[in-house]
Design a protein that fits this description.
Distance between the termini: 95 Å
Strand content: 15-25%
Structural class: alpha+beta
Strand order of the largest sheet: 3-2-1-6-5-4
Largest sheet: 6 strands, antiparallel
Number of helices: 16
Length: 613
């Protein structure tokens, strides 16, 4: 085959088996790495979604808690309104009684800092934390007096700053205003409940501390006023925590939960957040957190385990691939050595092998085809049409028919044809081969061998001409030439022998040579051949010696012949060649001469020589 390629794979596809195996292993390793990367990415996304879901659940539960607390608070305040009505009716609205009732209900609501009964004229009628009776709202807390209309219209107001005058609550205090028709004895009054902001964040703080190590949270009133705000931990790398996104600001927040993920411009950290409105209240509960920090505890061990497992797998894979490459290289070298031997065998035998792929119509040649075609460039691949075009036009259909017979199931093919070389020289080619079939008997490929038979064909033609010339000589020689084997069977009978004995060649060949002798000599002829074969001492030798004897014609008459016998051996057995000449006329002439010598020609009487003898 073509030694310029490393093996059959490289011969057809331009890549060696070692390179193909290496590329395949690299590809498989890349597929494994890609599969692991896809799996890790999917797992990472799953962890992120799980973290989002956990934080969303914490916010949702805090929203539900605030709503439940607000409903309970409304019920408690309604009960307080009823008790205040009773106090006004029975006790005449004494300050001490009102203070007692407010003090009692303050203890029923956890986180309550103060409970005020305020009229619309800015007077505090009673306060749970001030037993000295009525006082102006401005004296109690100047900010309350300034913001009274806004506080009572909003129903929920946040103390955003610290004011030292009077009895102002600390920053972060929520003011819940309750106006109820149940206050029948207290016209134009409202209950102000001052609640610590911790009431709105306690459970959220506890849940976030369990779910994410770093987070920020806040509770907004009307989407812009922070009632309470806090932070757990700090950014993992020490940078400041990201700020809340603008999408979480403003009063126009949807009732359903809002999720948002973004990359913080300052730190470059991916941050996720959740915001949800408390139904029926102008409160928004919000929480944000760094995504990677939230999943670190669950994600990092999983990632390390997979990376370690993948590294070990790739290491084992690499070691196995190296061993496989060594085996492939060893087998490739063996294949190359065998291919070289096969190539040399083709050179010595002066033959070329080829393969015809019936599906692709491609024909693959061995290297020897280049020399056979007389091409200047190596030819290792061609097509069906190019192959058939190289066959002499008078032989093309015969070759095509023979190949088709083989493809159709006719079995082994053998055909002799003329091939037109690139330089237009015509060479005789002997081709033979067979088809490779699938289990259903369908031909898939045809393998063949071609041998330059030009010299053999020319030699055969020369031998035929010599044989024809020799046969013409034998056919026209005057003497009969007969060959017999060691059993006395006639092998050849030339035309001169036919003229002498009257038998045609077809009649004589295959018969015993004794048929050409008179009856008295036939048995002696067989005994003579037996003695010749057994080399009996004293047996009369006639090989190489001419002699005269009587022969028998086909019509039965006998006549004298001269016989010269020679012997040749073929395959260890003798073949006798007899040169026969009819001497009947010679004997007659000799008799006439003898007669003229002793008798007068005119009178036919004995002459003086006869009388003297």
């Amino acid at each position: 085959m073509n030694r310029g390629h490393e093996a059959l794979t490289s011969r057809r596809y331009g890549i060696s088996p070692v390179a193909a195996t290496f590329a395949l292993n690299v590809l498989m390793a890349l597929v494994v790495v890609a599969g692991v990367a896809v799996h890790l990415w999917a797992r990472h996304q799953s962890e992120v979604e799980a973290a989002n879901a956990r934080v969303a659940d914490a916010v949702r539960m805090q929203v539900a808690t605030i709503g439940e607390q607000h409903r309970n608070l409304e019920y408690v305040l309604s009960q307080l309104g009823m008790r205040l009505n009773e106090a006004m009716a029975l006790q005449g609205g004494q300050d001490t009684e009102l203070h007692a009732q407010l003090r009692l209900f303050q203890n029923l609501v956890p986180g309550t800092l103060d409970l005020l009964l305020v009229d619309h004229e800015g007077q505090v009628l009673a306060a749970s934390g001030a037993p000295n009776g009525r006082t102006a709202l401005a004296n109690h807390c100047g900010v309350f007096a300034q913001q009274q209309p806004a506080i009572e219209s909003a129903g929920l107001w946040a103390m955003t700053g610290t004011y030292p005058q009077g009895r102002c609550p600390p920053a972060g205090t929520a003011v819940v205003v309750f106006n109820s028709s149940a206050f029948t004895g207290l016209h134009s009054t409202s209950l102000w409940l001052l609640v610590s902001g911790d009431r709105f964040q306690q459970q959220l703080l506890e849940r976030l501390s369990l779910l994410v190590p770093h987070s920020r949270f806040r509770v907004l009133i009307d989407g812009n006023t922070s009632l309470v705000e806090g932070q757990l931990g700090g950014a993992p790398d020490g940078t400041p925590m990201a700020a809340f996104p603008s999408v979480f600001d403003g009063p126009e927040q949807p009732d359903q939960q809002l999720g948002h993920t973004w990359v913080d411009a300052d730190s470059g950290v991916t941050v996720a957040g959740v915001a949800q409105r408390v139904p029926g209240m102008p409160l928004h509960v919000q929480a944000i957190y760094p995504v990677e920090a939230a999943i670190h505890a669950a994600w990092q061990p999983y990632l390390q385990q997979w990376l370690l497992t993948t590294a070990v797998f790739l290491l084992v894979w690499g070691l196995g691939s190296m061993q496989l490459l060594r085996l492939v290289r060893r087998y490739q070298h063996t294949l190359l050595r065998n291919e070289d031997r096969f190539d040399l065998s083709l050179d010595y035998a002066q033959v070329s092998v080829w393969e015809w792929d019936l599906a692709t119509k491609r024909v693959f040649w061995s290297r020897q085809m280049t020399a056979m075609l007389g091409a200047h460039k190596p030819i290792t691949e061609s097509t069906e049409s190019n192959f058939l075009d190289r066959i002499h036009k008078h032989d093309r259909e015969r070759v095509r028919a023979e190949l088709q017979r083989c493809i159709d199931g006719g079995g082994f093919y053998s055909v002799e044809f003329r091939l037109v070389r690139v330089d237009r020289e015509i060479r005789w080619i002997q081709g033979f081969g067979n088809a490779v079939r699938d289990r259903n008997g369908k031909a898939l490929r045809v393998f063949g061998v071609m041998q330059d038979a030009t010299e053999r064909v020319q030699a055969t033609r020369q031998l035929a001409e010599v044989a024809q010339h020799t046969q013409a000589i034998l056919d026209n020689v005057v003497d009969g030439i007969i060959t017999i084997d060691h059993f006395g069977v006639i092998g050849s009978f030339n035309p001169a022998a036919t003229r002498i004995f009257g038998y045609s060649a077809e009649e004589a060949i295959g018969q015993k040579a004794r048929m050409l002798l008179p009856e008295d000599f036939r048995r002696g002829h067989d005994n003579y051949l037996a003695r010749q074969m057994m080399h009996v001492p004293g047996a009369k030798q006639v090989v190489g010696v001419g002699r005269e004897l009587m022969a028998r014609h086909r019509d039965g008459h006998t006549f004298p012949v001269h016989l010269a016998v020679s012997e040749v051996r073929r395959d260890g057995h003798p073949t006798y060649i007899g040169l026969v000449r009819d001497i009947t006329q010679q004997r007659k002439a000799e008799a006439d001469i003898a007669h003229l010598a002793f008798y007068e020609q005119l009178t036919n009487l004995p002459n003086r020589r006869l009388l003297l003898d």
